[in-house]
Protein: Glycolate oxidase
Amino acid sequence: MTSTLPLDAVRGWTTDPVVRAAHRLDRSGFDPGSAPDAVVHAESVEDVVAVLAHAQATRTPVVVRGAGSGLSGGAVAGEGSLVLDLTRLNRITELSAADELAVVEPGVITADLDAAAAAHGLRYAPDPASAAISTIGGNIATNAGGLRCAKYGVTRDSVLGLDVVLADGRRIRTGRRTVKGVAGYDLTGLFVGSEGTLGVIVGATVRLRPIPVRTATLAAWFTDFGAAAAATAALTAARLQPAVAELLDAGCLEALGADGADSGAFLLVQTDGFGADAEIEAVRAVVEPFAVRVDLAADEAEAEALLATRRGALPALEKLGRVLVEDVAVPRSRLPEAVAAITEISRRSGLRIATMAHAGDGNLHPILVVDGDLDDHVWATAAEVFQTALDLGGTLTGEHGVGLLKRRWLRAELGDTAHDLQRELKAALDPHGLLNPGKAL
Amino acid sequence: MTSTLPLDAVRGWTTDPVVRAAHRLDRSGFDPGSAPDAVVHAESVEDVVAVLAHAQATRTPVVVRGAGSGLSGGAVAGEGSLVLDLTRLNRITELSAADELAVVEPGVITADLDAAAAAHGLRYAPDPASAAISTIGGNIATNAGGLRCAKYGVTRDSVLGLDVVLADGRRIRTGRRTVKGVAGYDLTGLFVGSEGTLGVIVGATVRLRPIPVRTATLAAWFTDFGAAAAATAALTAARLQPAVAELLDAGCLEALGADGADSGAFLLVQTDGFGADAEIEAVRAVVEPFAVRVDLAADEAEAEALLATRRGALPALEKLGRVLVEDVAVPRSRLPEAVAAITEISRRSGLRIATMAHAGDGNLHPILVVDGDLDDHVWATAAEVFQTALDLGGTLTGEHGVGLLKRRWLRAELGDTAHDLQRELKAALDPHGLLNPGKAL
Structure:
């Protein structure tokens, strides 16, 4: 039986203070103020089972961790807890070009999976901005999004099946290798986005999709955000669905050094597939009346130059201070109201807030730029942003997860009964509350 | 409290034997041999709550029903049970073109939703063959598929949120109005496909998508299924992803009256979007070397003529006898083996089995054509088809659901632990087992 396996039989187990200290934080900016009691670098599923048996026997909370690139505090771990680090489980077990799928361990870096798929003309469609550093397991735990979601879906839409160790050590396989399938409840979907609170994902079967044969890129500059938002609403009304539609507000452009009539807002659009060029022309025709300037990339190099503006925004803001990246989403039609409200919150609070948005799905990243510590004033300001999203019929978190930071507002979003039901499911799967307690719910 | 509301306060409640008899069957071909004790045509959510309160107080099993078009026996109801018919809850409450979503009651006919969306240049992307008769609630209960799934996803991918009455009468809202969102566990996904066993869906927020600007259609005929399967594998290898890729085997073509060198298999392909024409040319270039004949539709009328072959297959088979429509799925690379095995099962059993398949996602519909009753020999033959799918790494059901008919094989597919976990979730949500007992699990 697994419970007879002592934890010190696990090779990757350590109480080294340096390792423990390095495993107390993620990229949320939240510091638990202490380090976990121990860290286990699992090297096999047996190690995971042993850790959970130990946790059950000693009633020790377990914080599962990938690359620690999360932005909501989901992987933060303090005194009294054990960190289960899965980054050494990093093999791509199978890549089937014929079935357009891959079977991976959770510690695989998302960009590495994408690169392996590219050798077959395929890609892993979800494209979180963190792909170069985050793990597929972490992406699954938070149901990570990215730039291409409106057209290609979020992480959940690319996960066909999971291999999970439950809190009590039972191991289950969910889902299947087929694209479609309705045998049994959707346990796969339940574990995706559960932030390490329902089980430990030790393997995943993910869907791969063809790399589009062609991509076309356009950028537009506006006098103000209202004009840019009107342009994106006009794209929707024209029933266009680009692969990428990214907005930057004046705060982002200011950090990038822009000024003048074209520094009020920026919109980057990409179309893809056999009709990419015809589709981008349709986009141009819709956007042009609202914009000060529209640039259509003639080649790959020009496209990269336009993308650089979007990519450069966060690094430019990071040069101005410590950043807190928020992640609310609203119905697309409420985007202008959301940005106006956030601008007003910034003015009132005296905190610099710059906003970038995935226009196609209404997901906004208001970025609070802070001089010094993330103090109560910062969190109170973030709370106003959360409340704005809820007031507009939106959500606290489009793609980063609830983690520690957004728990306080979760009940307001879900409603009492749905929140209770979530707790009942958690209790059914983890009755002693050992998996990432205090997170997500 | 709801439990004080007596069932006879519900206007749509009846024990009329004619109504009861009409509500004992769905389209699965399975006859429970008796009729339900009563039928309630709910006209409000309050009616649903009253029925569930009555069911709890009297420990009466409740079978929720839409149009009764299910093919797996999920809506079959016999003596001792109460049928909760939701077809009168059939309003489209909201249709937002700006947010590309609709809020609907469960009894809305799927095609009616699609037609309402079309007025705004939008469509409800899942397209079950039953769309003209089935309800959106039934589609959600079975996570229905259709022809466009490989490119546009299944029902689950178009459901943003649900309004659900739980077995104990609590009402919850799951999900959201935004395209993305990761606050809390994915209860929406859990209820989609749960076949009326976890709660009663009384409302849904569904995503709408732009109608493609252009569609192109091609048909190809082959000497045998192996050649057609090789052509579809070549399409995959060429990293093409058509919107529709439908296969018919020789049994289907024979029923349609075909003979000659081109009667071994039929492939219908549709591409859509701005690049539809360029993409269909790429499809033609790949398919042509494998085919006896390839026809590219020059206009809408020619496209309809090619589609008629696919659409006519099931009606042609229905003229030859009583049909049992199966619904297995296999990883795409195993399609040729699956069809070969099914052909062998047909030969051995002496039962005519014709197979149509959604080639893009490996979902096969082997259609057993029966002279007379669905007797033990028929079910035993169907069982061989199920086992074939499982042996090839596939699933019992791609899009129709487990219902009554496939329960026996479910544990073999899911594995003991995953099956146990599903039962634990069911017990947490419906401790007295009153919601569609004996189905799905």
Summary: The two ends of chain A are 32 Å apart (CA to CA).
